[in-house]
Each structure stands twice: as structure tokens, then as C-alpha cells.
Amino acid sequence: MLAIERPLRKASLAGDIHTFLLRISVPVLGELGWSCELEINGLSGSRFNGTHTLYGSDGWQAMTLSMAFARLALEQELEQDAKILFSDTDEEFDLDFVYPNNGATA
Questions:
Q1: Which residues have CB under 8 Å from 60's CB, separation 6+?
Q2: Centroid of chain to Cα 89
Q3: Separation of alpha carbons 15 and 53, rounded Å
Q4: What's the pTM?
Q5: 19: which strand partners?
Q6: What pairing do the DSSP bridges indicate for beta strands 83-86 and 33-41?
Q7: Nearest-CA neighbor of 27 among 55, 51, 50, 6?
Q8: CB-based contacts of 75: which residues, under 8 Å, 6+ apart?
Q9: Is a pLDDT exceeding 60 seen at residue 105?
Q10: Residue 94 CB-density burial (10 A; 0-12 exposed, 13-18 middle, 19+ buried)
């Protein structure tokens, strides 16, 4: 079951712009414990493209780890000299504003 999603755009230095989507499911308790699925669609060529299951000791931790993993994926795209933009404007998606981490690394 879907909890949150965010459409974004990736702009390369060459000017190519591709839309992609981040989705995180609600935490569920299964045989292996609490988990959330993080789905990243549209980042072709990225090792993060696809569906990833993140496990935690409870639902809160599973969701928090999913958000941290999403930030890590976006940071990797930025390190490749890309810009991450909101889906409906040319405004840059500020990772430190959206994913505050108080100086910690994911």
C-alpha cells in the first residue's frame, strides 16, 4: 500500500531532462519483521532504479530507513553532475531542506 510519492525531474549538464518517481509504501509487518518498499522509477542507468525493501525493528524505523535510502539515491545522482528539480517547476529540489540530517550522513 502506497504511503507517499514524489515525482521529480533529473537534469543533466547536457540539458537532458528525465522525469522519475519516488514511492514509499506504508510499513508492514511480515515474516522477516517490519519493512517498507521504496520504488524508484525512471532513473535509467542508476543502480538505485527499481524496488528496494528496507527492514527496521519497527514500522517507524523501516520508514525512516526508506527515506534515508531515497536521499542516498538522490545524492548519488547529484554527484554525477545532475540537478534534481521539482516536477512542476525549474526550482531545484533541496535535499537538506526536504531530508534534514543535521550533518549526519546516510
A1: 27
A2: 19
A3: 32
A4: 0.85
A5: 9
A6: unpaired
A7: 55
A8: 95, 106
A9: no
A10: exposed
Three state DSSP letters for the chain: CEEEEEEEEEECCCCCEEEEEEEEECCEEECCEEEEEEEEECCCCCCCCEEEEEEECCHHHHHHHHHHHHHHHHHHHHHCCCEEEECCCCCECCHHHHCCCCCCCC
In which residue are the cell numbers 525512516 written? 64
pLDDT tens column, 17-73 = 999 999 999 999 999 999 999 999 988 778 899 999 999 999 999 999 999 999 999
Q: Which amino acid is at 89?
A: T
N-to-C CA span, the chain: 25
**Placement of cell 553532475 in the chain:** 81
C-alpha cell belonging to residue 40: 524508484
Mean pLDDT of 66-90: 91
Confirm if 30 and 54 have CB atoms less than 8 A apart. no
